[in-house]
């Protein structure tokens, strides 16, 4: 803390410096013997406070004060400290902007103790006022430049301040809106609801919220009413209102509700097994198709871990790895797993899973869909058995058998056919039905045309 002490009496300067610095350790006092030198030092350096005598040659303390306040445009704490005070001088000093007017005299320790405390208090007050003004300027800039309508009302709902966004919303000028009642620029229904919120804010001292629709523009606003208390009385005497435009948010919420309704219809009516699963792996919901197959009631399965409740032990490790991959953002599609019912029946499913996210991009839950392929797997198993049986017969029968396509191309031949024609199966595949031309004869001994071959007639008639 740095103070400039101005007095034409050098002895007093030295005495004051010693006492003041002893009284307040962090105080650094610099002395000059005239107001003119004081002005020079103010140009060269920065000080936290000025203490000046009143009666000095050339320029007295009041002239020095006036110069600092008007010409220098400085709000530095200024204390008049004089031994020849009069009431009219004190009044003039305060009118010119002095922060304190103290008289010299009496016990040095006592008078300089009072002066030291006055310096400390005024410097502290000055810094507080500076920070307050800085914050107020920043807030004013934010309020004026905000895209959200902001205004202040008194307890009679008269508007005492409005920013540019509120002026644009109401279509009024600053001069028109200031002093007008809220209901003069807003619909009657809105005004009644707003007045109730204002009264509640004044009565409780608590903030209130209100969502409204601006009828002319169709836009939605989320109003926050915040009490402004008088620092002296502690009572609410104003209310600051911030109206945040939430139209886009409302639209997104509407779209989300519609989307969720569509999804819910799909979820409930989908014949596949559908689950909603939390990021922690717990079942949030399950559709009727899955419940019917698993044999559970919904309340039995909700909240349970999906892996251990639904999947067979042989598939749980694979399901766990797939769940971890899903949590990392991978989409799961067509993974074959086994589920197990309440009655311990195993069924085979193809699993697909995708994420459902909120507006911020955070995963809310996964939608897991299981397609039951148990019957298909059984049919495939039976088909393989049938094919193996057919292959055994095809290979072992002593009758020549040739398999061909609809255009007559030879697809395969058994060993008996290879022996009958003297060709390997690979050589026969390079031929078609014309290969038999001239090798089959009618009863009268004439060669048969290809279209007369018994196998061709079977193909043309499409009979087995």
From TrEMBL:
- The PAC domain sits at 333-385
Which residues get modified to 4-aspartylphosphate? 53
Q: Where is the PAS domain?
A: 135-205, 259-330, 386-433
Q: Which GO terms describe its biological process?
A: phosphorelay signal transduction system
InterPro entries per the UniProt record, alphabetical: Biofilm_reg_signaling, CheY-like_superfamily, PAC, PAS, PAS-assoc_C, PAS-like_dom_sf, PAS_4, Sig_transdc_resp-reg_receiver
- Keywords in alphabetical order: Phosphoprotein
Q: Where is the Response regulatory domain?
A: 2-119
This protein's superkingdom? Answer: Archaea
State the name under which the record lists this protein. Answer: PAS domain S-box protein
Its source organism is candidate division MSBL1 archaeon SCGC-AAA259I07
Give the lineage.
Answer: Archaea, Methanobacteriati, Methanobacteriota, candidate division MSBL1
